[in-house]
Amino acid sequence: MKTLYLKLKGRMMMPAIFLILFAMAFSFDSLSAIYEGYLNILQSPSVLISDYLEIGGLGATLFNVATIMLINIIMLNRLKVKMSGPIFAGLLTIAGFSFFGKNIFNTIPIYIGIYLYAYYQKLEFKSFMIVVLFSTGISPIVSYLIFGTGWPFYIGVPAGVIVGIFTGFVLPALSAHTIRFHKGYNLYNIGFAMGILSMLYAAMLTTLFGFDLFVFGTTTSEAYHYELLILTLVLSSVFIASGFIANRKVLRKYPKLLKRTGRAVSDFIRDEGRDITMVNVGVMGLISVIFITVLRIEINGAVMGGILTVMGFGAFGKHPVNSVPVMLGAAFWFLLSPVVTGDPAGVGLAIAVLFVTAIAPIAGRFGVLFGIFAGFVHIVLTPFTYVFQGGFDLYNNGFAAGFVAALLVPVFEFLKKNVPEEEME
Q1: Is the residue at 348 inside a domain?
Q2: Residue 343 maps to a domain
Q3: By CB neighbour count within 10 A (0-12 exposed, 13-18 middle, 19+ buried), where does 34 fall?
Q4: What is the 8-class DSSP label of residue 392?
Q5: For residue 285, which phi and psi values (nearest 5 degrees)?
Q6: Are residues 177 and 315 in the same domain?
Q7: Are 186 and 261 in the same domain?
Q8: 134 found inside a domain
Q9: Is the domain of 190 the same as that of 272?
Q10: CB 49, CB 218: distance < 8 Å
Q11: For the stretch 127-148, what's the b/e string if a residue is b when 16 or more beta carbons lie within 10 angstroms of its beta carbon?
Q12: Which residue has the higher pLDDT, 1 or 207?
């Protein structure tokens, strides 16, 4: 076990996760079913909420997740990018959103755009790897222009590819500026930047071409709830076990990590160590399971995306102390709202209970009660931000979180003047 851990620790268990997902894909469906389902996924407009479990089935969805992970792992290895908190969070976020909205077809043009930006700035492409990993949250714009507009392919394909490349080209500069808007209290900063771009695209497509964008995507599938619940428990256990294999006394390091506010940029791998970070990642997965179980939320593609994202950011700002308060605030509104299983609007509220952890640093700095209130405000606001961005920004909660942080943090700072501030790095 120790030898296996040493082989995998440089990539924080990512090769093992890829192998698990790839093996699971072919254990659930036949090759022909995976092929047919994967084609359906690639041809989906992929706007929120497009549940690939409903569109392609479990086998094809897991194949899509494994494929995207493999491509990004190979890219990181070829560029010799060192594993860090944000890189780890980016990889698990990619895996999560490959359950609903991301596929190889709609991500590549955005990667090309970021590469061209790096070339234009005469900088190494690897220096933008964090932006690269999170950039594909806006990938539905590519799929929608090709498959969702009804345009002939000779118009749709060039439009999708060109807009995708343009989006990738402007994202690095835009995301560098948007972090000032929320002062690092929104961990999904790139999601906020993409929300602004998505809002522009939605406005243009609506006013110039008359498309009706402000509806949710396809229905969701909760048919694989127990399989995905078991997968989450297995992955969480693997991460926790890995931390203990590396250091039997790893829990002694946990109190220090739990004191961090989580404000961006909080790289737990660099600052606290890989061993305790792995434990924290697994714990965040278990906390996600507890919340969805207590709230009776069934796992579909979108919910699974939320779980993996929460786990990923266990290396990049989230831990139980700063995450549970905002999740409690969101859960309170979720319980007050009439939610129908499988209803897209209800699914939006359900995943917000998980994605609300984007504003975990607010609870980390200002405390439990302020965190609960911030979580409540976030889940109330989230459905309305979707209307503005038209479903192109998969990180809609990151878009909402930017406004929540910008609105509440100045007020909280006034009310709690003596709370020490953790400086952004």
Answers
A1: yes
A2: yes
A3: buried
A4: -
A5: -65, -40
A6: no
A7: no
A8: yes
A9: no
A10: yes
A11: ebbbbbbbbbbbbbbbbbbbbb
A12: 207
Query: In Å, how far from its chain's centre is CA 264?
Result: 15
Task: Look up tokens 């290396």; give the residue.
Answer: 315
**pLDDT at position 215, please?**
55
Where does 210-314 have alpha helices with state H?
A: 225-246, 254-258, 268-272, 274-294, 301-312
For residue 319, CA distances in Å to 8, 241, 250, 280, 369 come to 23, 17, 15, 7, 17
Q: What is the CA radius of gyration of the chain?
A: 20
Q: What is the DSSP string of 276-306?
A: HHHHHHHHHHHHHHHHHHHTTPPP-HHHHHH
Per the model's pLDDT, the better-predicted residue between 365 and 177 turns out to be: 365
| Tokens read off for 245 | 């294999």
Domain that holds residue 325: 225-415
Let me know whether 402 and 296 are in one domain. yes
Task: Give the mean pLDDT of the chain.
Answer: 89
Cβ atoms of 345 and 220 closer than 8 Å = no
What phi and psi values does residue 89 have, to the nearest 5 degrees? -60, -40
Q: Which residues contact 62 (CB under 8 A, 6 or more apart)?
A: 21, 22, 24, 25, 28
Instruction: Read off the tokens for 74.
Output: 């190979």
pLDDT tens, residue by residue, 257-272: 999 999 878 899 999 9
Q: Bin 101: left if φ > 0, else alpha if -120 < ψ < 50, else beta.
A: left
Task: Evaluate whether 387 touches 413 at the Cβ level (below 8 Å).
Answer: no
If residue 352 lies in a helix (H) or strand (E), which one and from where to where?
helix 344-355
